[in-house]
Amino acid sequence: MVPRFESALLIQHAGRKAEHVRARKLPYVTSDFQVSVETDDLFAVERATLLENGLTQIALPLEPVPDDRIAAWRGNNPAQIQTLEGKLAKLAPRQSAVRQKQNRDLMIQHLLQGQNTLQALHLNYPELYESARHCKDGREHFLATESQLLSQAPTELLSQVLDQFKMELNESIRGLERYTIEQLVWEAVADWLVRCPLDFVEV
Fold this sequence. Notes:
This protein is mainly α. It has helices spanning 8-23, 44-52, 67-76, 78-91, 97-124, 126-149, 154-172, 178-194. The chain has two domains: 1-17 and 27-56, no CATH class; 67-194, no CATH class. Helix 4 packs across helix 5 (97-124) and helix 5 runs antiparallel to helix 6.
């Protein structure tokens, strides 16, 4: 039983150990005895039960996004960049142009980091991924209406969205460590800012 199975050397090692055991001719070992390598995927039901009940938590690494990848995303998504910059200008209208660009790149970083986290969940913890997607889709369904009809200042609305979505994720996915939850929260907010769900009406 290993936490990760990513090397053929494990198979070779298991094969040598199996040969060693068979060579001993032990009365309780059959001639086709093999040593297999397993991960917790073998216990998917048990793992899901532990995660859903908060009896264990996983923490995914917070890996920085290289500057060239942020620049590439900007170059490939000019319309989304225009939308994002317009919304950030409403959030902090008095900030300098340099600071606005820093905020823009920070949001892109949150978006790409969060997408990496979602991909890791999808590959390794599909049950948690489905919960995260369901939670995000549910919040997004009502977000556009809230953004357009509630008379709130942009900073107040953003703060409310952050707090509410974080609470919903914590309640729905108790198997994720707090900073992994934070990545998912900021991925969602950045995604909503570069698209239409989260907008700010001038008060």
